[in-house]
Amino acid sequence: MKNVHLYLLMGQSNMSGCGTVEEEDKTAHPRVLRIDPGGQWIPAAEPLHFDVEARGVGPGFSFAKEMANADESVMVGLIPCAVGGSPLRMWQKGADYYNAAVARAREAMKAGSMKGVLWHQGESDLNDNDAPTYAARFTQMVKDLRADLGVKNLPVVVGTLGDFIVDFSPLTGFLNNALMNVPNEIHNTACALSTGLKNQDAVHFGAEAQRELGRRYAKEMTRLIGATK
User: Fold this and answer.
1) Cα 65-189-83 angle, rounded to 5 deg
2) I need a labelling partner for 30 at 20 to 30 A (CA). Which of 77, 136, 171, 209 fits?
3) What does the alpha-carbon distance between residue 146 and residue 210 come to, in Å, rounded to a whole number?
C-alpha cells in the first residue's frame, strides 16, 4: 500500500466503543482500513475493536473518515488497541496492553507511516490511589511510546471524560483537568473536549456522541499535523 497514514487507537471502553451500530457505521469508506487481529488490512467499519465481542461505535471511524476526506491522496489505516476497563498502569511500558499496542503498531508500520495516536481513558483511574499520579504516568507513557515507535514528535490527541461521569465519580473534574493540561506538559499533543456529548449509560457515550467526538479528535489532529509540517 502507498501513502498510508496510520493512527493508533488506545484507551478503554469509550475508545473501543459501546454506541449502537447503525447503517452509516457499517458502511465502509473507500480509503479507510483497519488492521484485524490477524494482522491483515481490511475495510474499516464499526465495530473497529475486538477486545470483547459486543463492541459498538467509538470515535475512531468518524475520525478516520474526516482525515481521509481532508486529503484525497492518502489511505487512512486504523490500529485498534483499546481494551475496556483498562487502567493506565496497563498502558505503561512493559505492561501487557502497552506491549501489545507497540507490537501491533510496528506490524502496521510495514504498510505505512505512523501519523498519530488517539487516547481516551481515565474512568478506571478515578480513585484516590491512581488519579493523583495520572498526569506524570501519562507523560512517561507518551515518551516511551514515541521512543519505541521511533517517531520523536508523534502527535497525540487525548479526549476528556464525559460530563456525565461526574455522577460516577467526584474525581472526574480532577482527571479532566489533567487531560486538558496535557498540551501544556507534552509537546505536540492536543485535547479534544467531550463537553456536551450525551451518554447512553453511566460511563459510555452514545453513538452520535462518539461520531462527534471522532470529528473533534480529527480537528485537533489536523491542527497538530499541520503545525509539524
Assistant:
1) 65
2) 209
3) 26
